[in-house]
Write a structure and sequence with these properties.
There is one protein chain. With about 550 residues, the chain is an alpha+beta fold. The protein has 4 domains: about 5-75 and about 125-245, Alpha-Beta Plaits, CATH 3.30.70; about 80-120, no CATH class; about 255-405, no CATH class; about 405-545, no CATH class. About 25% of the residues lie in helices and about 25% in strands. It has a 7-stranded antiparallel β-sheet with strand order 9-1-8-3-10-14-11. Helix 1 runs antiparallel to helix 2 (about 50-60) and helix 2 (about 50-60) crosses helix 4.
């Protein structure tokens, strides 16, 4: 049995405020965040910098591969609260007071209360013991000389996250089976993208933190003429991003959400989900295929053709998307809007877009794509004028949060395009043939055959989207031409790409189940986003949870 270095952190207040990229709530806390806390503890213990013994131990830890496994108690998002933080302009207010000016031109008092920035705080509420355990596999003989140092540093940690996230920490070497020895969700580092993207230290992170701290202390530079200037401190960049996924979690692709903003940034741009959705998807693909965008990412034309446009240009006869190859996907997201007690939650216009991938894509590569998309303009093909630009936003927005929620029951906001003909032999015509009428039993038999084929095609579409065959086999499916949600139109009224128009479109409701050893079922909750079928590259086959 392998030995593991374990560092355990318990949150005293049962809350965690830490944020990751783009201000998005982070859970579990990243290994880099823990490494920074250890570095801070080393600096406090030593009093004047970090001594060589502590530095050697931290350098050993930053070089350990693979990244640590994490066992963490579950964390639920909260509604949070609003703060109004005073700006650092007290000197400006005092200067006006010293000049005898106590009221502005509108006769309002001049004081610090007029200089505040709105700040939304949404901590995560932790369950159970509010604990997180980090476990590194020990296969390095050098660990023995750093063991006591790392344990001492871990026990000196006082906070993890914001300054209010006070913790107690401990460390030890574990020789027992870790998967059954600790309660909580087991998070594993994986090679594929998807799941939670967490920052991990690399060789050089400790030196970069030292330089970053020195730059922060010297951010106010004094010039020879007596003036002072502010020197911005660059964010820390010496780390890598690793995908973590729960051991029990269904594999999910990476994703990012962008708002569709007007060119003057005065508000959202709204697109109709039935017809303008297809036009929007085309504009997004065009933006990602422009030479300047591809050049910034180092893509050549063949990469753009395959990854963005989905065509294999090495074979001129292929004009349809290549399903098996990695592909960048743009999925327009209709807003889920509250329309009062009478109508409830209703599917509205498209104001945001989901960017994700099918097939393998490294987390670092996807992050580069997301950063390159920020600020990209969408140009109307007819008018040749910008109609919107992309701005990164959180997936916790109430209008779209449902797409990323966890639920056992899901239904479509845009119809699924079946991955094949549901009636290849045209037997449905016999149901309407008045010349040779069928008996009730014959009609029922034809309907059963058609339903069996539709069900088989729907399960194929689910498996093709990356879901496990076992999960799909036990799922309960319903389908029809009309939607299951308010605001959803008839399936036949949604525009589809040329290659999908010959296949049937249906609204679908799916309830995920798991078979128990005794043959009975219990509900299985899975996380979104979920988009399936032949039309998923243009936003068809998009699901949202049903209210349970």
């Amino acid at each position: 049995m392998s030995e593991h270095l374990r560092i355990s952190v318990r949150f005293l207040d049962g809350e965690f405020h830490g944020r990751g990229d783009n201000g998005k709530s982070e859970w579990p806390p990243s290994p880099l965040r823990l490494f920074q806390a250890l570095t801070n503890a080393a600096a406090r213990l030593d009093g004047n910098g970090i001594n060589s013994q502590n530095a050697d131990a931290l350098r050993w830890l930053e070089a350990v591969k693979p990244p640590p496994q994490i066992i963490a108690d579950s964390a639920a998002t909260t509604n949070g609260y609003q703060l109004y933080v005073p700006d650092n302009v007290g000197d400006l207010v005092a200067k006006q007071w010293s000049a005898g000016k106590f009221f502005d031109s509108k006769n309002h008092p001049i004081d610090i209360s007029g200089y505040r920035t709105e700040k939304r705080v949404r901590p995560r509420r932790l369950a159970g013991a509010a604990a997180v355990h980090y476990l590194w596999t020990l296969d390095d003989t050098d660990f023995a000389k750093h063991r006591e140092t790392l344990i001492a540093l871990a026990r000196a940690i006082t906070c993890l996250g914001w300054g209010v996230d006070l913790v107690v920490a401990d460390a030890a070497v574990e020789k027992r089976e870790i998967s059954t020895s600790f309660s909580g969700e087991h998070w594993l580092p994986v090679e594929t993208a998807g799941g939670a993207s967490l920052r991990v230290p690399i060789v050089g992170t400790l030196a970069a933190l030292d330089e970053h701290h020195a730059a922060f202390l010297g951010r106010i530079k004094h010039l020879d003429d007596g003036r002072e200037i502010f020197v911005p401190v660059s964010p820390l960049s010496t780390f890598r991003v690793v995908t973590y996924r729960r051991a029990t979690e269904v594999s999910q692709p990476p994703y990012a959400v962008f708002a569709l903003r007007r060119p003057d940034d005065s508000g959202f741009v709204a697109f109709d989900p039935q017809w303008r959705r297809l036009h929007l998807a085309g504009m997004l693909r065009h933006a990602a295929s422009r030479p300047e965008f591809a050049g910034a990412l180092g893509w050549d034309k063949s990469k753009v053709d395959a990854f963005v446009l989905g065509h294999d240009k090495s074979d001129p006869t292929k004009t349809t998307p290549t399903a098996s190859s990695p592909r960048l996907i743009f999925i327009p997201l209709p807003s889920i809007e509250w329309r009062g007690e009478d109508r409830g939650s209703t599917v509205g216009a498209i104001r945001r877009v989901l960017v994700t991938v099918s097939g393998h894509c490294d987390a670092s590569e996807f992050l580069r794509i997301v950063r390159a998309l920020e600020g990209q303009e969408l140009t109307d093909e007819d008018g040749k004028q910008p109609v919107a630009f992309l701005r990164r936003q959180s997936d916790e927005d109430n209008a779209i949060a449902g797409y990323f929620a966890e639920s056992a029951a899901w239904t479509t906001v845009s119809p699924v395009v079946l991955p094949g003909h549901d009636d290849p032999r045209k037997v449905r015509r016999r149901l309407r043939d008045a010349a040779t009428p069928l008996s009730v039993a014959e009609k029922a038999q034809i309907i059963r055959k058609l339903d069996t084929r539709i069900e088989r095609l729907l399960r194929k579409a689910l498996i093709d989207s990356g879901l496990s065959a076992t999960l799909v086999a036990d799922a309960d499916l319903q389908w029809r031409g009309t939607g299951f949600l308010p605001g959803v139109d008839l399936a036949s009224r949604y525009s589809a790409p040329n290659q999908c128009r010959r296949f049937r479109r249906l609204h679908v409701r799916v309830v995920w189940r798991e078979r128990l050893p005794d043959g009975t079922f219990h509900l299985k909750r899975i996380n979104g986003p979920l988009c399936i079928g032949s039309g998923r590259f243009s936003g068809l086959g998009l699901f949202v949870p049903l209210v349970e």
